[in-house]
Design a protein that fits this description.
about 280 residues; alpha+beta; Jelly Rolls; 4-stranded antiparallel sheet; 8 helices; 16 strands; about 25% strand; globular
Length: about 280
Amino acid sequence: MEDLDFTTQPSESPVYDPVAAMKFFKSAGVSESVAAGTAFFSEHQSRGFFSADERMFLLVQGSVGLTVAGKSLDTVKPGEIFGELATITDSKRAATASAKTDCSVISLDAKQFQKAIAQTPGFALMLMSIMIDRLRLRIAMLSMQKAVPAAIASGDRRVFDDATLNEIAGALGDPPPIRYSAGQTIINAGEPGVRMYLLRKGIVAITANGNTLERVRVGGVFGEMALVDQSTRKASAVAETDCELMAVNRKQFLDLVQSNPAFGLSLLKLLGQRLQAATGAGK
């Protein structure tokens, strides 16, 4: 994860399109009417990834309030999505969502969401953009509070297994690995973000302002945020050990999102985990 200065707007971030969202949700979702005062879900609520009750929602009509610890966080308006983070990452709810008025929604559980992504894989790019914007806003707030955690994306999170890495390499024409020796810089802060990297061997440290934010290991990914919004790098990446990488440029990235729904889903889960880590910081 390279973006830390979230006070600037992305240059070409995919714009949220309520019409596209409606089409996406209708492709596999269920329409529901919800009475005023009804809770869609509650803070810290946890259900399994394949539970039919673990849903994300598109608000068609009405108004939904989001609260954390009883304090108002946001109001969802018609055409907006809510509840997607827990569905994508199989995690506890970070907030409570309640109908402020009588509402009409379209819901997607995890299986329905995967079906919709398989039918419209490009929609994953819009969801990535939403998560990145929320992540930037959250870390901007933490920066003002001087409470940015030392490791927002801590933990050994493998994004792709070896079989998937080989499949991606095949789709890219089986390029030879890019090799870096221990101590070499792979990405410099301030550079244009034109590639993401998939790690096939070694360990890479993501650093900014003297802090190590993440250690990426085999099967991990870094640099992907810049391919969504075409921003400059806000952190550096250094090889901690001898490394082998697979580089993916923006055109290849967009092609992979469109042609391989599992690729987009994996990156969505990674971004969701990073957003959750940032949201949990500074509490």
